[in-house]
Each structure stands twice: as C-alpha cells, then as structure tokens.
C-alpha cells in the first residue's frame, strides 16, 4: 500500500509554518509498511484542493489530508473531500457532546462554525480528537483510494495519529499480516557511499524494504518486513541485516530510533571497565557534554578539560609553549599533546582531544572546517587524525564530536 500526504493551508505555502506533521505521519506509516511516495502542499482554495485530490487518488492507495478541519471559513477540507467522494456530512455525537460540554463550562454560546468541527463523513470511521474539537476521518474504500482527514495543529494531529489512526489502520489493513521495522545506525560513512555499497540489496528489495536516511554525521537504515507474525517478520529482517553487516558492518553501531553513538560508546567503556577524558579547544566542552547526557557515564568519565586559549593548554595540560609556537594550535602535534597530557593528568585509559578552526574566519592560514582529533589509548602511542568539515561553525563542532566518538568506538571494537 502507498499513501500520499496532502498538507492543506496557505500559511504552509507562504513559509509561515513548517509541516512537521507530514514528517511524523510518514515515519509512523513506514512502521506498518505503508509507503509515502508523494507529499503535496496546497493552499486554502477549494478548486485547487479538488485538483490535488483527483491527482493523488490516481497514483496512491490512500490520500491523507492534514489541516483545514477547524472552525474558520477557510477550513474547508472535510467539505471538499465529502463532495469529492459523493458522501454526506453527518454529526459525530461524541464530538458534538465534547463541544457542548466545553460551551457549558465557559458559558459561551456555540456558533455554527464551532459545531462544524463535529461533522464527519457519513461512512467514515471517526478519529477522536484528544487535544481539540475537530473530529478526524478514516474512509476505507475497497474500490478506490481510501482517505484520512487529520487536523492541522501539531498537538491535535500527532496525538490523533498515535492514539486513533495507527490502531485503526493496523486493525483494518486488508492483508492479515504484521509489519515490523528495525532501524540500523551507521557512522563514519556517508549516505551516498552506504547506498552505493548496498545497491544490489536496495535495487532488488521487496520484502523487507530498506529505506536510508541521512542525519547529522550519521546514516540510518529502516528495514521493514511484513509476515504472518512477529517472529517471521524478524527472521526476514535478520536475513537482510546479516547481508548488510557483511558489506558495511564496520560502520554499524546500534539499533533504534532513539539510540545514540554516545550511548554506544559509554556502554562499551563500561563493558571493558575503561575510563575516558577529553581536552577540548575547538569544541569547547561539547564532547564532554554529549557523553555526560548518558546515564551511568560517571562510572567511566571522571572529568576533563576545556582549553580554548593557548594559555589554558599550557597551564591546565602542561603542554610546552614551544609545541604550539613551532607547530601551531591547529596541528597534529598539538592534538597529540592535548590527548596525551589529558590522559596523564587524570590517569584515565583513554583521552580524546579536539583542536581546529570552527570559523567563520581562518586561523593560522587554515580554512574553517580544518579539524585535528587526537586519541591516546592505554598501551598505544597517541595519534591524531585530520578532518575537513563544512556547513557552518556549529555543524563543524557537532561533526567533530561525532567523529571523536567514532574514533573511540573503532578502537574499542578492536578489543
């Protein structure tokens, strides 16, 4: 099954608000094996909305509108969709009771516009609005496109998707199958390279499906399988995951939408009973702040250093002044000294250092985005690695932190 999301609202076209609802809905649909091939934005215009609906139902099994269910005159989505489907609008008694109750509490007279929010398409399943008044609709059609109508305000839309729409879709799917999704997370490889490496698997996919998604300094793959039960679906996913790991397993660090690289690194440190510290110039404490978000990190992280100025590097880390004078602060040698001295000062097993140019200006004739990351690992000679990042000051710092975490992850995987 494939779906098309139609966001309704002139404010979306004008860029006054961002369609976060569409992204959330698409992600939830992917979890149950419904693909979103198109997302359309249309203004509050009856004729143009009608045209969009006509096009959408010709190429999609399900058309999902977001917005235009409110009480104002330009909220016409439900009226247009009902007319398009040759359906009547009738009062949803539960929604009307909720509106009546609110009117009694406030002592305000109801207007016709308020009552319009209680209307539903006659042969549709009502989707209750837990955070508002406009009732949603799920219109299932065995002989054409099915329709879903959702409210626009995110507090109403997201709750309706989670509590009403997803359970209803799972219950009324024509196939008597379950859908299972698993997210694989990769770092140290770009989306284009990962997709190229997995081209044969992706080009021949049917069940399971593989959906890549690039995030800041990492890439995720969502694998979705359908089967008669969870066990069978997970077996299908296991088979394709094994193939993926055989190709690019060195970049894989964990599963899940909410799992993070810092959580993976801290878990590894705890497992191996290793401690870590950091000396940060370029990143100004972001590496330490990032691992500090992980519960239990105090077992492996005693503290660290933020040495933004050269004087701080000399005073806190005891780096000889001639090292910086000779090689510069943005250098392999300085990165190595920072990591080596931080490890020695706090007597940890591992130390990571960050020095470079966040920008926007050059430093020591080095362009913005030039980054050296040092690592000192117990019983190994300290080393430093050169990176070149772009996309602005904060992005450079964020990618530096992720790269530092990945260096630690790689070393730990060698154990």
TrEMBL record:
Gene3D superfamilies: 3.30.70.2860, CinA-like (3.90.950.20), MoaB/Mog-like domain (3.40.980.10). It comes from the Bacteria. Pfam families: CinA (PF02464), CinA_KH (PF18146), MoCF_biosynth (PF00994). Residues 4-172 form the MoaB/Mog domain. SMART domains: MoCF_biosynth. Belongs to the CinA family. HAMAP family: CinA_B (MF_00226_B). This is Putative competence-damage inducible protein.
